[in-house]
Structure prediction request, 171 residues.
Amino acid sequence: MTEPVLPRTGIAVDVHAFADDQECAAAEDGLVPLWLAGLYWPGERGLSGHSDGDVVAHAAADALFSAAGCGDLGSNFGVDRPDMKGASGLRILAEAAEIVSRAGFTPGNIAVQLVGQKPKFAPRRDEAQAALTRAAGCSVTVSATTSDHLGFTGRGEGLTAVATALVVPTP
Prediction:
């Protein structure tokens, strides 16, 4: 009897603080750029991180790793990799999808929930989903919410993203 081919799911959370004044002062134009959901957000303070700090792309990549049992963001793209310094979230997501594929899984879809007070995400949702979908090679949807001014994200100290991913074993 043949075992049924069942999809696998994964979950991930990524959290980054907004860049502090010292990081901004060291930036070329006095502001660390915000990269979020694969898009540049002009005039917004960026997030701290070894790479670009894109919580949406990072959570999506980590959810793929979780679903496929391929480690996590840190074990695949950790700070011990100098080539990942400043790396784009889209690059990370695309490479994660490649790693998952090499491990014998086909990404099915990814859903991400962004939590934060700003920037206002809805006006750029379609653009973000298109960029993330191209990078992942599967449908990526993003929803956003505030935390009603509660906690880390509510105080405007940073952003959080929670993602789920579905992968199917490649026959």
Summary: Strands lie at 8-17, 33-36, 39-45, 105-115, 139-145, 158-169. The first helix runs from residue 21 to 26. The longest strand covers residues 158-169.
